[in-house]
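ESCALATION

Customer reports they have been waiting on this structure for their group meeting. Please prioritize. Original submission:
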Amino acid sequence: MAAVQGGQVDAVEEKDIKTEPSNDGCGNNNANDGRLLSTSPGSSSSTGSNKSTAGAPEDQQTLLAVLQFLRKNKLSESVEILRREAGLPEDSLDLKGGDSSGAGSGGAAGSVDLEGGDASSLLSRVTSSSSAVAQAPTKAAGEDQPDVNVVLSAYSQQGDPPLYQVYYSGLKRFIESVLDCHRAELSQVFYPLFVHMYLELVYNNHESEAKAFFEKFSGDQECYYADDLRVLSSLSKREHMRGNETLLDFRTSKFVLRISRDSYQLLKRHLQERQNNQIWNIIQEHLYIDIFDGMPRSKGQIDTMSGSLAGEGKREANKAKVYYGLLKEPEIELPLDDEDEEAENEEGKPKKKKPKKDSMGSKSKKQDPNAPSQTRIPLPELKDSDKLDKIMYMKEATKRIRLGPDNLPSICFYSFLNAYQGLTAVDFTDDSSLIAGGFADSTVRVWSVTPKKLRKVKSAADLNLIDKESDDVLERIMDEKTASELKVLYGHSGPVYGISFSPDRNYLLSSSEDGTVRLWSLQTFTCLVGYKGHNYPVWDTHFSPHGYYFISGGHDRVARLWATDHYQPLRMFSGHLADITSTRFHPNSNYVATGSSDRTIRLWDVLSGNCVRIFTGHKGPIHALAFSPNGKFLASGATDSRVLLWDIGHGLMIGELKGHTDTVYSLRFSRDGEILASGSMDNTVRLWNATKAFDDLETDDFTAATGHVHLQDNSQELLLGTYMSKSTPVIHLHFTRRNLLLAAGAYNP
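Update from on-call: job pushed to the front of the queue and completed.
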């Protein structure tokens, strides 16, 4: 960022500019020459400067110079207001000759000789540019009134309410008159300025002015801010602001705008020439302007990236190194099966060698340079049962169907009929043997999808009778009398919003409106732990691909990382400005992605707890996230009906898939990463060519320095198929190990 040079603020610094006046009161001329006065007119704490103005002699001289300047332009009413505000005695302005033009050196104590060099230097501190000072005396008093009011507004508690419309209209006229290439960039300023000016009016109890301001300019804002404006319009009194968290965030966090240096200089010059420090103060206090060198961005490029509650992510936020590679697979020898599909393939031997090479060889020998070290975060040891499962996985992988544009997956749709309990969440186990649903009646229901029924472990007394040395001990401990296709889990005291199976199928997580996350045993079908940490509804939870860790996020806007054997969260990820609606683990378990109602996606480092990526571009709350199997890419879906694709390494948006007509609720990559499936509330499943979307990318074209994104509008080329359900919104998708696509939702008659 550019530094402050010679008192001119060259770029809005990242540092928070506090609303309290600095120690040297109003006369501070160290770094404020370029922006008139540092105290925001709208901040209530600026009253502190009123009392101290008459304190320091230097401050008093500055103030007297301003008063002289006003009197010279026959603005006696303004002189009186300012004098009273500053608490100066009435005779403090009496000069030797009784008028401001008298030359001479022996004025009364505290008086200022306007013709003297000292006075002009004092004046230059308060007026922002010498040209304005030179022109001012030649203007008629009436013309000069707005500028003087600006100077006054910095001293008074806030700006003159009726003038807010004048300021905003003036800026609007200016931006509409600049060259097209700058207009799109500068138009980004409208929305945050509009909100802050409206809040300032409401905060200072100017209800009618605030209402008029809102009615006049709310229609000019971008359509994707409609929901925010609806909330804003309901806040018409100062008391309303206290309870609204979103609003408090808007006032305290800085709205990020990405603007080219040329456009920024234009805006700065305009505001300083007009001495419009009301707007300049808001820009400096509440906006973070991320300035880049180079060509200004087009309207299309800006629209692609904008829409979030706090503007775009800073470019700096997406520069951190992310280890997106996959961890090395553990060395497991694959036993050769005698019955290895010899009917399918006459030569049985190559068939048997292939899985070893396919699943093991390539992965285990070479370490991915982008992968984190195996020990970067502690991961659970592989148990014997996990190793058996890995072997099963490898065998299934050999029979996996290779998908592509000419070979689309079959889709098996599970419709929940008569789900009057209100189906809110669905999950499948990794091996596709179980399906679970979370319901609005506080229950979690688990079904077996295979002929194998669900059984509980026998009671302790019965277990004592079993021979523990027998080969089929795992079979004997199950109680046949409890076998059924469905088990219902009771324990939550509010609707269940998120569920997730552990990778080893022994546990199930559920999160609920009651603020808890529960861990259920799938051996006994009882609740083992209730994790309490969230104070509000928990919208989503997700197990790590390696088990043991899980993530939860909810209405309190904080995501929490847990381990199954700890009551307290291990990490808290705080930064979102609204509810966290979706959570996902990266395939290597070192990172967590969270999607939020603030319309941003954040990527968090599990080890450090830092936010390493902020992705903006969605125009509505985010409800679906999916990492590609190779860990390089992330797909996201939201209420804006779009699916966006992100390159994690470069921290940039690389694609936009349009086609759905309602909220995208679920996303899933096929096991080989060839196809992306998206499910939506519009009752359709769509299949997209993920390989083509990612292969068309020329990563050298990424101008990461400026953050320019050139997205091709190639949704139609990438769309491989659209599949309608009868009347069932798609709330979950899952690819089996052989690449069959499973979809689920509740039939909506």
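Sent to customer with the following note: The longest helix spans residues 348-365.
Escalation resolved.
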